[in-house]
Write a structure and sequence with these properties.
The chain is α+β, with helices and mostly antiparallel strands and 93 residues long. The protein is 55% helix and 26% strand. The protein is built from 4 helices and 4 strands, in the order ββαααββα. The protein has a 4-stranded antiparallel sheet with strand order 1-2-4-3. The longest helix has 19 residues, at 27-45. The two termini are 21 Å apart.
Length: 93
């Protein structure tokens, strides 16, 4: 299995595409799991909308890639500290 973790801007991160490949899941399902984790984080912290967005940006940020059909697709980069929660969510399904 390919190493999932990369260092970007001095942070250990994982690409949602690599997670999908690693777990042999559809990328859309991995993105849904990430969305679930984001919503759970927001609900648990009870922050204002601005603070919630700042908190979320610490853990996830959006990037893009070009698929086989030359379409631009959304991809998320995940801070490794939050990756565990996504792993649990993915394996629950």
């Amino acid at each position: 299995m390919e190493n999932l973790i990369q260092i970007v801007n001095n942070q250990a991160v994982v690409s949602s595409r690599k997670v999908a490949d690693s777990f042999r899941k559809e990328h859309s399902k991995v993105l849904r799991s990430i969305k679930n984790v984001i919503e759970l984080t927001q609900a648990q912290n009870g922050f204002s909308e601005l603070t919630r967005n700042d908190e979320i940006k610490k853990w996830f940020y959006e990037t893009t890639y070009i698929d086989n059909r030359r379409k631009i697709k959304k991809c998320l980069t995940i801070n490794v500290d939050k990756y565990y929660y996504i792993d649990v969510d993915i394996n629950r399904r």
